[in-house]
Amino acid sequence: MIIRKSAREIEKIAAAGALVAETIAHVGSVIAPAVTTDELDAAADAFIRKHRGVPTSEGYKGYPKAICISPNDVVVHGIPGAYEVAEGDLVTIDVGITLDGYIADSAYTFAVGEIDEEAQRLLDVAQDALATGIAEARVGNRVGDISHAVQTLVEDAGFSVVRSLVGHGVGRHYHEDPHIPNFGEPGRGPRLSEGMTIAIEPMITAGGSDVVVGEDGWTITTADGSLAAHFEHTVAIMGDGPRILTPRVGLARSVEV
Q1: pLDDT for 42-57, tens place per residue?
Q2: Residue 199 pairs with which residues in a beta bridge?
Q3: Which domains does the chain have, with CATH numbers?
Q4: Cα(37)–Cα(26) distance, rounded to whole angstroms?
Q5: Is pLDDT at 254 greater than 70 in this prediction?
């Protein structure tokens, strides 16, 4: 069942979204070679709680940490631990926060120091894919219009979308209907209407689209070991167009609508 939100509820989700964005920026300021992902998680946890939020991921279906941190070939759901960030890494910070009973969700892939040209192109294409998907998040369109826009841009650039992982509704619950795939046909799927709040999140790879789940039951990596990038925004479907509820703070590049 798709849950449409009132104007008041959308403002509540936007408040959570602002804290999500600030948390991502805060963690990004701490990322540096030799810092462990566990230390980054602790920084996120302290920042979220200092600002009255609750890390939504912690305890969700047994997930043990405050946020997900996914380096290099890890697509999503990397569990923070002893891994030390290194120069040239790609590190995805994926944050969900509950604030006053409402949830927002966003992700950003950081480059650590200097990265090679193809890794930078992967990041650029993933961000372009997020922007083109959000542009289709309009009243009267269908979910497939978002999906097709993302897939077309990514594949035209020579990269792959992960087909087994999808975006989702969000707001009252962490994961709500509808699913938002990163591939599909235009004009298909649920129709978008005012008050829907959805997480659009291209997850793309420099190689193939297949992924594998690690022994911990959470960490999802590319099957071929290729680099992955993941960018996500919580978006409200409004009468005058899409509204990003997790706008970037203090980062080099942001998606505008």
Answers
A1: 999 999 999 999 999 9
A2: 168, 234
A3: 7-244 (3.90.230.10)
A4: 14
A5: no
What 3-state DSSP class applies to 3? Answer: coil
Q: What pLDDT, in 10s, does the model give residues 134-164? A: 999 999 999 999 999 999 999 999 999 999 9
User: Which uninterrupted H or E stretch holds 211?
Assistant: strand 211-213
DSSP run (H or E) holding 222: strand 220-222
pTM over 0.85: yes
Question: 151, 183 in Cβ contact below 8 A?
Answer: yes
CB 251 within 8 A of CB 196: no
For the chain, the 3-state helix, strand and coil shares in percent, each to the nearest 5, are: 30, 30, 45
Q: Which tokens go with 113?
A: 């120091």
Mean pLDDT value across residues 180-202: 98
Contact 189, 142 (CB under 8 A): yes
Q: Are 149 and 133 in contact (CB under 8 A)?
A: yes
The CA distance from 30 to 209, in Å, is 31
What is the average per-residue pLDDT within 79-103? 98
The residue type of 242 is: P
Residue 173, number of CB atoms within 10 A of its CB: 14
From 169, 233, 175, select the one nearest 196 (Cα to Cα).
Answer: 169
CA angle centred on 179, ends 99 and 188, rounded to 5°: 140
CB 198 within 8 A of CB 137: yes
Q: What is the DSSP string of 160-212?
A: EE-SS--EEE-SSSSSEEEEE-SS--TT-SSBP-TT-EEEE--EEESS-S-EE
The pLDDT tens digits of the residues spanning 92-121 come to 999 999 999 999 999 999 999 999 999 999
